[in-house]
Amino acid sequence: MQNQYYTPPQLNNPTPVNQAYQQHLYFKNKRRKERNELIATGLIIGGTIVASLVIQVIIVTILQRTDYYSLYETSSLFQNAFNIIAVDVFSLVIPYFFMSLILKKRYTGDLIPREKIGKLPAFAWICIGMGCCVGANYVTAVVIEIFKQFGYELTQTELLEPSSPIECAAIVFSTALAPALCEEFAMRCCALGALKKYGKGFAVVAVSIVFGLIHGNVIQFVFAFILGLIFGYITIKTDSVIPAMFIHGFNNGISVLSDVLKYSAGEKASEYVGPVCYITWLCLAAWGIVYLVFFKKEFKKQPRKLREPYALSFGAKLLCLLPGFFVPILILIAITAQTVVPIK
């Protein structure tokens, strides 16, 4: 007869050793899940970059096989209108919107961050962002000079200059407004939102790499990567994409203003645009820093969050994205090989 006082062994006895082992398994599984999610997310984002480039190639190939290609090469109005439709809408907005639908479970908030931040704080952030953009221009100039020291020149596609008032308006839309809206939607809304749950700093850096890759050559990669850090940081700090859109538009607008003044007032007048804009924005950036630091206390030190046990490190997260970014990086290298030419 079975002993009525017999108690079977408890396999899940909550001893300290067993609790530690269960916790180890929990964090190990959580780490594996995050790694797999990041690899899948990287493949989807990388596929979106490739799809964006393929769409551009297809549209340009179709254009080259029509009678409109000669018009594209000679008409600034047609060229700018084509770039808005082909590059900004079909190659950016549409692919990245579909990407956001695929990755919708990754988003921790709205697709388009638009927290109300007030007019004066928003202007201060814009001023600081523009001051950083001025610095990015000088960093890019240093990169160009380094290549020159080794006997190579970096080239990039140049747009036709405007020759009428309507073409001046077209270049404003094509170079300043459309990229500010479309690129920021693709990068700081769709891409940043998909990666933000894995760490805000990590998301800013990763999306800045993507932002550089979509520009397709070394000059623009370096410049776009630095700008991506600026736009991403300000978007995270304000929880709004609006300041980044304004900074993007104003930064591109400097070259637009130069082209418009060159058409309306002559080449000599356009030469002053860069220095005047840079000095103005640097002064406004200094005011913006003072305002946000001393009046809004935006940059006060925050308590550092402890990293979860077994959480992926910053570098490990970037490595998880590498399989997805491998093909876009190869494409950038291939394009770069065509844009780096020996100095004669």
Structure characterization notes:
The protein has 344 residues and is mainly α. It has one domain. 75% of the residues lie in helices and 2% in strands. It has helices spanning 16-64, 68-74, 76-102, 119-149, 165-195, 200-213, 218-238, 242-265, 267-270, 273-295, 314-339; strands at residues 152-154, 340-342. It has a two-stranded antiparallel sheet. It is globular, with a radius of gyration of 25 Å. The mean pLDDT is 89.
Q: H/E order of the elements?
A: HHHHEHHHHHHHE
Shape: globular
What structural class results from the helix and strand content? mainly alpha
Oligomer: single chain
The average pLDDT score comes to: 89
What is Rg? 25 Å
Number of domains: 1
Largest sheet, if any? 2 strands, antiparallel
The count of strands amounts to: 2
Helix content: over 70%
Taking pLDDT < 50 over at least 5 consecutive residues as the criterion, the unreliable ranges are none
How far is it from the N-terminal to the C-terminal residue, by CA?
102 Å
Summarize the structure.
This protein is mainly alpha-helical.
